[in-house]
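Annotated sample (chain length 295).
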Amino acid sequence: EFHFSHLLRTIFWYRNRILSHTEISIAPFSEKVKGKRKNRPKEEDFMKNQPKPDEEKTENPSPQDSSPDEKEVLQLENIIRSGAVITRRGSHTVHTVSIIGQIEGHYQLGEGQKSTKYEQLIPLLIAAENSEAIDGLLIILNTMGGDVEAGLALSELIAGMRTPTVSLVLGGGHSIGVPLAVSADCSFIVPSATMTLHPVRMNGLVLGVYQSFTYFHRMQERIIRFISDHSGISPERLQELMLKTDEIATDMGSVIDGEQAVKEGLIDRLGGISEALEELENRIRSKEENRSSRS
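Output written by the structure step:
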């Protein structure tokens, strides 16, 4: 038979056991803490053991202080992080920038999509233009297009550079990648590459009013004017290629390969990486000769 008094005696017994163990365990800990406080080193002793400024070692050594192997590692890390590399060709230094995947604008793309962030590319281009150590800029393109305003911003920035620039289209230079390809001083394309010319598209909410059509038309004119100003194709022919209806199954526009892009005057020359670097070298030499003749 269960008695309430037996339950109370059991509870008090466990309570006394817990309190007794707690007092035993706390006492040695408090003594240890007091001992540590007594033996704590003074601030003067602590400062004596600190290294002097000239004895300190930097955790991240500069590239000049690095060994050749460390320099290669730093360069590889820079390529992986920014997609850019600085190489020396003869007596000239060339900065190579790659524009791949989709050109990211004001909105960040989802995971699993390769993209070129224009907020990262703009400082690279400004640094290449402002640096006296950079003699030329090589732009490698394999892009499916992307944000129109971001692509045009990069194109205008490249077109306004005084540093000699050469672009090379590999794989594809589609949509807003076309203005990027023609923005350089001289453009190249490999025979197997393709370029897609199509009207402007817009994602998100679109109102079915006349103002929306006017906005599309003005943006299309900006793109056509930039491409025709920096290439050999006429605005009329470019618009004709953009509005074709018998070439793309579910869309308007044209897909042209490397040879046709050169024939249309959209790209300057047909060639690969060696031809592009050779042209860039010639333009760097020409700029140096003009500078020396002026002086």
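Annotation: Residues 23-30, 53-63 have pLDDT under 50 and may be disordered.
Annotation: The radius of gyration is 33 Å.
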